[in-house]
Amino acid sequence: MKISILGYMGSGKSTIGKDLAFQLGLDFIDLDAFIETKESKSIIELFSSLGEIKFRKIEHEALSEILNSKKNIILAVGGGTPVYYNNMEIINNESTSIYLRLTPNELSNRLQKEKEKRPLISHIKNEDLPEFVAKHLFERRNFYEQADIVIDVRDKSTTALVQEIIPHLPLHGK
Ligand code: S3P
Q1: DSSP element (H, E) containing 96
Q2: Best residue for ligand 1 mutational test, from 4, 9, 50 (most atoms within 8 Å of Cβ)
Q3: What is this structure's pTM?
Q4: What is the largest CA-CA distance in the chain?
Q5: Contact 2, 91 (CB under 8 A)
Q6: Is the Cβ–Cβ distance between 149 and 97 less than 8 Å?
């Protein structure tokens, strides 16, 4: 079984993905970490040295490589991954996808403390974050909403979310 976890920056994809992988006895892969290892550069360095367009190409190739080759994994993709190339089609063809949904306000509250490693928001002032996130999420939500499973995160604990996700998973998944 392959499971892809999607959602905006700060939605908890890696935290929930790791816990879900542990509960199901599957390997966990974080797409950003996979790219950082492969390119020997941090995401911030990749954005500043290559620019976003080249980063998206590398991200697309890494996504295809993982979903076409690995079996039995939980993959946390980046916040922008579903939006570029035919990535959402690959994600849905090759895996069961889960969208972790939060409101723009919940996301901007979380992201105020987690901006530094995220090139798209690191320069945005905290007071401008809610408006930025609201617009950005509006542009991206049509892609996220194509996920097989949509989970409202709200203020649920990681354990509660994992327990909520498990019954939705297909017994004979992709
Ligand atoms: C991005 C999200 C980041 C990372 C990059 C771009 C985005 O991943 O891929 O900074 O476009 O939303 P996280 O969602 O894990 O922060």
Answers
A1: strand 96-101
A2: 9
A3: 0.97
A4: 46
A5: no
A6: yes
Most ligand 1 atoms within 8 A of CB, residue of 14, 43, 47 to mutate = 43
Who contacts 151 (Cβ-Cβ below 8 Å, separation ≥6)?
98, 99, 100, 101, 161, 164, 165, 168
The torsion of the CA quartet 16, 3, 32, 151, rounded to 10 degrees, works out to -40
Nearest CA to ligand 1 atom 9: 78
pLDDT tens column, 105-161: 999 999 999 998 999 999 999 999 999 999 999 999 999 999 999 999 999 999 999
* Tokens 């076409």, residue located: 68
Secondary element (H or E) of residue 140: helix 129-144
Token code pair at residue 105: 């306000």
3-state secondary structure of 3: strand
Q: Exposed/middle/buried for 6, CB within 10 Å: 0-12, 13-18, 19+?
A: buried
User: Does the Cβ of 43 fall within 6 Å of ligand 1?
Assistant: yes
Measured from the CB, is residue 136 less than 6 Å from ligand 1?
A: no
